[in-house]
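User: I'm putting together a small comparison set for a docking exercise, and I want a reference complex before I start. The sequence is below, and the ligand is flavin-adenine dinucleotide. Could you produce the 3D structure with the ligand included, as structure tokens?
Assistant: Of course. I'll restate your input first, then give the structure tokens for the complex.
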Amino acid sequence: MSAEAVPYTHLGDALATDYFRVREQFTPEQWKHFLTTRRFVDEEVLPVINDYWEKAELPWPLMRRLADLGLYGEDIEGYGSPGMSPLARGLVTMELHRGDGSLGTFLGVQSGLAMKSIAMHGSEEQKERWLPAMARLDAIGAFALTEPAHGSDSVALETTARRDGDGWILDGTKRWIGNGSIADVVVVWARDVEDGKVKGFLVETAQDGYTGVTLGGKGASRAIWQAQITLSGARGEWLPGTRSFKDAGRVLVTTRATCAWGALGHAVAAYDAALTYAKQRVQFGKPLAAFQIVQDRLVKMLAEVTGMQLYCMQLARLEEEGRMTDTIAGLAKLNNTRKARAVIAEARDLLGGNGVLLENHVIRHMGDIEVIHTYEGTETMQALIVGRDITGFGAFAG
Ligand SMILES: Cc1cc2nc3c(=O)[nH]c(=O)nc-3n(C[C@H](O)[C@H](O)[C@H](O)COP(=O)(O)OP(=O)(O)OC[C@H]3O[C@@H](n4cnc5c(N)ncnc54)[C@H](O)[C@@H]3O)c2cc1C
């Protein structure tokens, strides 16, 4: 078959998928951030991202552009951050993931996890030192909670922190740490040997006690790097707002909500590609989109995407009113990652063999949704946390 016989074009392009007209509720601030990110994704991310993904290279020029666009720091007030509303923050996350999950995750680690931990729990001096530099991407951050032996049960983490004069000494191993091999500063969650409580510490990577080794061979989110970190007598500074494991959880509430938005972005990308493709691809003398079964499948995908959009809109409203809880964010993450996986799998199938080619984007989203499904609490863990809330029975600990 000649190349001209396969004129499937614009598969990465955004359609205006908003069947229930949720965009009519955006304020000018929200429109601004939404359109800035959308334009960046369409004009700068999609033309180049598959190559970075395939080679497992970091898209440095795109990561730097996020700083030019003023997106790092998201909803943090002051310290060089844009102070976005929860809805604007969600829209930025959605659009970045519509382009690429690795880039969306990079923003999530830099802003949502590392900067947010410092903004929420740091001293004034720590905030002044790190946040403006991180907003400009002059400094890169990471968030180290997971350990080789403790993922879902990170509450049982074994990394230790021992007071030493004015500072602290940390020992232990962390795994799966986004940016762990390129960061300047890492928010490390460790157990204070004195009181046995989990607390957060700022660990600078330019010291002998810190090693971060990139994990290779991933089949998902290949354009962001995670690392195994070894702390051997590493020096750290305590984040004074952290007194127990719950303080790590406070950071993760908002990032769980952004996971729901990220999953929506992946699903919209896949739905848009499937609709565009089905109108172009002719089989049995007609475009695929003209067959009843194909229409039924596309409409069911749209129904799922629309439901995800409504979940996200309500999440943002609740957060604005200060009423979003960890279980609300957990239910949204669970729902949206589960639905996104199904929508993307449908899209992949509707593109037939072309669905596995990176140039058509869907297969990249199919890989990348897997990591959102797993990180910041797997689907099952979200179900168990919400299950405990609605039944009163905790069903997951020992
Ligand atoms: C790409 C990527 C990026 C990441 N980035 C970071 C990061 O920046 N910082 C960080 O700290 N961590 C990060 N993580 C780690 C992530 O948060 C963990 O992978 C996640 O919490 C799950 O832990 P685990 O992989 O150890 O799986 P496990 O906890 O071993 O779970 C394996 C399976 O068992 C299920 N399971 C576990 N417990 C129960 C139970 N009680 N009942 C029923 N089922 C159960 C889980 O749902 C899952 O299906 C990242 C992970 C990935 C893949």
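The mean pLDDT is 96. The CA atoms of residues 212 and 229 lie 4 Å apart.
User: Thanks, that's exactly what I needed.
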